[in-house]
Amino acid sequence: MLVALAVIALDQLAKHAVRAGIAQGEERGVLPGLALVNTRNRGVAFGFLPGDPVAVTVVIALALAALLAYFALHTSRPLIWLPTGMLLGGALGNVIDRLRAGYVTDFVKLPLGWPPFNLADVSITLGVLILLLVIERPRGERPRSP
Questions:
Q1: Could you tell me the CA-to-CA distances from 28 to 15, 103, 117, 118, 120 in Å, in that order?
Q2: Which residue of the set 11, 52, 97, 121 is catalytic?
């Protein structure tokens, strides 16, 4: 739960700072190839399923239910709490936006037409990758020491 709460707090603080400091549609270069923008996303991560709030809600609810069921059945797996917290926190961070405003604030823009995203999206993406590593590691195998 602490991981989820930390993700939600950081995500909401970053989104608030962007909404307060950057006009909607404005773009500010930070580094070559990296800009901050203030965009509204009515779809799920990276703009998937835009404009269909029922489909978005169903997808999010099903994904969270599956995640929590998997976590409940595999609590003995080492480190399972980390990706679960990241996924839960990221999903809830975006749900808070949807409930508050009907859209999600996205603000990180990369080059080559990649859709803008936010910290919740990053947490979800990294959470999936870490979950795959946790699942793929055989039970009982300890992480290697450097």
A1: 15, 21, 15, 15, 20
A2: 121
- The token duo for 111 is 């080059």
Q: Which helix (H) or strand (E) holds 87?
A: helix 81-101
Determine whether 121 is an active site residue.
yes
Going through the chain in order, the beta strands assigned E by DSSP cover 27-31, 34-41, 104-109
Domain that holds residue 57: 2-136
pLDDT digits (tens, 9 = 90+) for 22-55: 999 899 998 988 999 999 987 665 556 666 666 7
Residue from 118, 137, 4 nearest 68 by CA: 4
Rg value, the chain, Cα: 17
Residue 11 annotated as catalytic:
no
Q: Examine residue 143 and state whether it is found in any structural domain, yes or no.
A: no
- Does pTM surpass 0.85? no
Q: State the catalytic residue, choosing from 11, 52, 97, 106.
A: 106
Q: Is residue 146 part of a domain?
A: no
